[in-house]
UniProtKB/TrEMBL annotation:
Pfam families per the UniProt record, alphabetical: Cupin_2 (PF07883)
Protein name according to UniProt: Cupin type-2 domain-containing protein
Domain Cupin type-2, chain residue ranges per copy: 51-104
Domain of life assignment: Bacteria
Length: 142
């Protein structure tokens, strides 16, 4: 079967890319999975993991994206989606509809998730608060 999509084949093994800072949030680490390059920017897929405690969280925001899915692979995270607290645990899948206002305000030290977004260069836009945010769970002392 001939490929007429213009996208590239991609196969990234765990040893191929490292978790790095410098992504959207400084309290997370990101591991690129090669999808943005293979799709010429149509889609990004990366693993995201906790790096620092959730002091202040992400703040209220929305994404300028056509599609976004989060698959929690380890631990848990608490989000506000509009005015509803949502606990996302390992094995859960969340489809964030385009433009939904949300706030990731709490997560476990071992939290890790796969995020797939289109387009790859999606924007995050701060929005006015929707409601009050519950306090995060303190991390255990190291």
């Amino acid at each position: 079967m001939l490929d007429r999509t213009g996208t590239l084949f991609s196969h990234v093994k765990p040893a191929d890319t490292d978790f790095k800072g410098g992504g959207l949030r400084d309290f997370f680490l990101y591991r690129d999975l090669g999808v943005a390059e293979a799709t010429h920017g149509k889609v990004i897929a990366h693993l995201v993991k906790a790096n620092l405690p959730p002091d202040g969280g992400t703040g209220w925001h929305r994404h300028e994206a056509d599609f976004q899915i989060v698959i929690m692979t380890k631990g848990w995270a608490k989000f506000m989606y509009e005015d509803k607290v949502t606990l996302v645990e390992a094995g859960d899948v969340v489809h964030q509809r385009p433009g939904i206002r949300h706030y990731l305000f709490d997560y476990s030290p071992d939290m890790e998730y796969l995020e797939i977004v289109s387009p790859a260069d999606f924007k995050s836009v701060d929005v006015d608060p929707v409601c009050d945010i519950p306090p995060p769970t303190p991390w255990p002392e190291a």
